[in-house]
Design goal:
alpha+beta; Phosphoenolpyruvate Carboxykinase, domain 1; Phosphoenolpyruvate Carboxykinase, domain 3; 2 domains; 9-stranded mixed β-sheet; 8-stranded mixed β-sheet; 30 strands; binds oxalic acid; binds manganese (II) ion
Length: about 600
Amino acid sequence: MPKIKLKHKKLQNWINEMTEMCRPEKIVVVSGDQQQKKELEKEAFSTGELIKLNQSKLPGCVYHRTAVNDVARTEGLTFICARKKKDVGPTNNWMSPKSTYKKAAKIFKNSMKGRIMYIIPFSMGPVGSPFSKVGVELTDSIYVVLNMLIMTRVGSEVLAYLGRDGKFTKCLHGKADRDINRRLILHFPEDNAIWSVGSGYGGNVLLGKKCLSLRIASFLAKKEGWLAEHMLILGVELPDGRIKYLTGAFPSACGKTNLAMLVPPKALKKKGYKIWTVGDDIAWMRVDSDGALWAINPETGFFGVLPGTNPHTNPNAMEAIKKNTIYTNVLLKPDLTVWWEDGDGPPPARGTDWTGKPWQPGRVDEEGKPIKGAQPNSRFTAPIAQCPSASFRSEHHHGVPISAIILGGRRASLAPLVYESFNWQHGVYLGATMASERTAAQYGKQGEVRRDPIAMLPFCGYNMANYFRHWLSMGKKMVKPPRIFFVNWFRKDKHGKFIWPGFSENLRILNWILERSEGRVGAIKTPLGYIPRYEDIDMTGLNFSRKRWDELFYISKKAWQNELKDLKKFLNKFGKILPKEVIEEYKAFDKRLKKYRENR
Ligand code: OXD
Ligand code: MN
């Protein structure tokens, strides 16, 4: 049996145990240095795990295809294995730790025979910061190693920081035979451990990301008194030179990555506005010694969706992925560059699709449906540092101070463009009751409303009712908690057209949010919360009429009453442990609605 010798006895014992079970032929510790990375790439090119892209057009870029049945997170196969079922709540899949370890061990047994097991020591957040957490991932996939090198801080420095007895999350990943019937994504919060087997898709296998930074971290955050959230972090530089930071929670397919990298519209850029991207997916937030909320992005890379990413929707992302990027499941062009739907330019005359088959525009399947060149969830993995708007604060050990928290969703006809909660408790209620309509690109029925509290439904590592309680208690720890806002960029008119232009123009709304958070501007009180006055939004360079504005902010009493009915069904799932404050807010909103007189 291959062995390595480490100073850290617990780490050593755990690796021995996992080696015993998986039986790799060799063990390699990932050092984080460039030479080793080059060798790993070379090895992956030789086996076909990776394809080298055109190095003069895409320097440092590589290409990977996953198995066709392994293209997205598999929520149905994702489990929280706490000892008591009630601790994971009604929104998580549960299995008992004891029987699950046994079941998964059978799949892991001998699964790395003839293969190499890589040991990846990694730090989520700057190495050594009190905001950060360390993990060690064991994997038999070079693709995982190369992604982790972009997404997190990896290597010898982390091992040195762990010393002889530092705490770490045990992360085990094995590709096994990638049979969907033998695929399991398992979290053992009470053991600070993750086991993922049978998948090669990013969200299931880059264990620092969703598994550690959200599911395990949310459990730890509850215990230790901080917040691990599915949120972007961005800074808005104001014309007076100050930078104010926001975090934002949005369910999938609401443009979170685009918002994190927003480019100001010309007229606002001229006035001196600028955006600083701290992160596009995860925020870890703590109350610091000044009594304010501070946030770090524990990641160092983006793992973003490609279809729909283009110079209009996200020019900064297009810039960020020109070099040193891993492309997964897109169309491969004959010149070894890449293409995806709604990307940059028309489709090539021919290419190889994400499944490895020859492709031409207009190709259809047996049912006559168009065959896509790129998988709808195809991805780029790129270093944040390559993004033109990357923040200079990403290595700061306690991150950035947060002035406002944004929650969002995709609602075609219900929610106004923006509204502000009355206070922290009301803001938590807005978070607990968040929902979004599914798009064609998502699994499930198009247009169907999916409840997704604070965008954490698939990521909360414990009972969500207690998660709401934790949020309520965090508000009491702060001297001046950030204000909480809800935004909906996706309201449509009666012709089915988006009313608000979105993208860059969203900065006008972020600006109002920041003005509100500093008490510099007034607002209109509605049953939902405070909404902006038309004249308070900086519309320089944008032709947007008051009539369209009023359409954006129309509040339909009947539609909201129906929403409350639907919401009740969701909240009832939690039974008695739902915090009384959430029920109080529900009732107060119901009462405000009853009194409300629509003016149309
Ligand atoms: C992601 C997701 O990949 O939320 O970030 O699914
Ligand atoms: Mn995400």
